[in-house]
Amino acid sequence: MEPAVRVTEIFRSIQGESTRAGLPCAFIRLTGCSLRCVWCDTAYAFHGGSEMSVSEAVDRVVRLDTDLVEVTGGEPLEQDGVYPLIDALLERGKTVLIETGGHVPLDRVNPRAVKVVDVKAPGSGMESANLLENLDRLAPQDEVKIVISDRKDFEWALDFVRARDLDRGRTVIFSPVWEALPAATLAEWIRDSGRNVRLGLQLHKILWGDVPGK
Ligand code: SF4
Predict the structure, then answer these.
(1) pLDDT of 210
(2) Is 90 exceeded by the pLDDT of residue 30?
(3) Distance 49 CA to ligand 1 centre (A)
(4) For residue 74, which atom of ligand 1 is closest to its CA?
(5) pTM
(6) Cα torsion through 162, 22, 107, 128, rounded to 10
(7) 93's torsion region: left (phi>0), alpha (psi -120 to 50) or beta?
């Protein structure tokens, strides 16, 4: 049987996060996630969606005519169909970013994809879901993202990075919770941290607000 995925939305926008922020990007948002981060901004992708074959999903993404494609969710790696989807998008010549919560093993992801892997700080309520062995599965092009809701999260994230020297030769992004922590405050904390951490802003929210499909 042809592999399928359950999809919440497919759209073209500007990449808002990661080191590719600012580039035109096609997004495919898969439905469902087993976590419940306190500050999750895509709860509308927990349920519903439409089932479609991987080939139909690829055709729809390719029609959006971008070099960059992001596979996101929900949690995209919880669906078996995502792995052939990633392979097919790579075969069509796309640069493929995978946004994952970090709680699913990364070993089935095509190594040519770029993984942006969350580490969950305590303020997410999901710290216990962190799958630390995933950090050993990162390729040089992959990025680590920690969403920060307050100073306690920041101190925790700094300790996490420091203990593993994670910011040496790797992109580590600290991103503020949109409603909870002013970006300028996090910027100052990072500036004074002595670590090689990058401030991550959600460019799409600055441009258009917190709305689906953007
Ligand atoms: S892992 Fe991502 S999609 Fe799942 S609850 Fe957390 S922020 Fe939301």
Answers:
(1) 85
(2) yes
(3) 16
(4) 3
(5) 0.96
(6) 50
(7) left
β-pairing, 24-30 vs 4-14, is: antiparallel
Rg of the chain on CA atoms, in Å = 17
CA distance 4 to 197: 37
Cβ(99) – ligand 1 distance below 6 Å: no
Find out whether the beta carbon of 30 lies less than 6 Å from any atom of ligand 1.
no
Kindly give, in sequence order, each residue whose CB lies less than 8 Å from that of residue 184, ignoring residues fewer than 6 positions away.
none
CA 74 to centroid of ligand 1, rounded, Å: 6
Q: Which residues, at least 6 apart from 15, have a Cβ–Cβ distance to it below 8 Å?
A: 21, 22, 23, 24, 25, 68, 70, 97, 203
Residue ID of nearest Cα to ligand 1 atom 8: 40
Which of 127, 128, 99 shows the shortest CA–CA distance to 114?
Answer: 99
Smallest Cα–Cα separation from 202: which of 181, 185, 177? 177
Alpha carbons 26 and 11: distance in angstroms, whole number: 6
C-alpha dist (Å) from residue 20 to 81, 114, 151, 201, 202: 25, 11, 27, 12, 12
Which protein residue has the closest C-alpha to ligand 1 atom 1? 101
pLDDT digits (tens, 9 = 90+) for 167-196: 998 999 999 998 899 999 999 999 999 999
Determine how many CB atoms are found less than 10 A away from the CB of residue 67.
11
Q: Which two tokens stand for residue 65?
A: 């005519």
